[in-house]
Amino acid sequence: MTPDDSSALARRISDADRENAAVVLNRAVADGRLTWPEHAERLELVYAARTAADLSPVLADLHLPASVDRTPKRLSAVFSKVLRAPEGASPLHVRAVFGTAVLDLRSAAPGEEVELRLSSLFGKIELTVAEDAVVLDEGGAVFGKRRIPGRPAGTPGAVIRLSGRNVFGKLTVRRA
Questions:
Q1: Taking the alpha carbons of 15, 21, 25, 30 in that order, is the dihedral positive or negative?
Q2: Longest dimension (CA), the chain
Q3: For position 67, what pLDDT does the model report?
Q4: 33 in helix, strand or coil?
């Protein structure tokens, strides 16, 4: 180990570093490289980590980068209709202005967390999620409508977090 390696491992990590590591663990359990008990155990270690040296052994055998791109992707439907099946862990910002955005999220793996900021102005956003997906709505509506189905019965699948605001618009989530 060179002196540079030891100083890098002694570096204090940030909350963003911990979140990136959690995304790596979520992908590993979704891919079948970790069991759920292993995932839970490692997740505790990730959130307790204070330095890169604490974090390194938790991710070492997964052969995945510890850093995941969390830059939000953008999707707009302005006076149009857009159909997408987004993939990946990046947050997605969706805007529908006098248009419709249709998203198919059924490919989200159990344990994966999908973050969506959905905004509409006289527009409509339609989401299709898996039967076992947990949908958490933290958004609002002004002269608009948000229709979100209740929690699924049984083992939860992917976690879909919604935020944003509908103004004279509509958000519909359906399970398939």
A1: positive
A2: 62
A3: 54
A4: coil
Alpha helices in the chain (DSSP H): 3-9, 15-31, 36-48, 52-59
pLDDT digits (tens, 9 = 90+) for 80-129: 999 999 876 678 999 999 999 999 999 888 878 889 999 999 999 999 99
- Given a contact cutoff of 8 angstroms between Cβ atoms, the answer to whether 117 and 160 are in contact is no
- The ranges of the chain with pLDDT < 50 are 1-4
Which residue in the block uniquely carries the two structure tokens 């979100």? 148
Q: What are phi and psi of 77, to 5 degrees?
A: -125, 100
- The pTM for the full model equals 0.63
Query: Which residues, listed in sequence order, are joined to residue 93 by a DSSP beta bridge?
Result: 74, 117
Residue with token string 């999620």: 129
Specify the pLDDT at position 125.
Answer: 97
Contact criterion met (CB below 8 Å) for 87 and 107? yes
Report CA torsion sign: 60, 92, 36, 107.
Answer: negative
Strands (E) in 12-154, as ranges, are 73-78, 81-84, 92-97, 100-104, 113-121, 124-129, 134-137, 140-142, 145-147
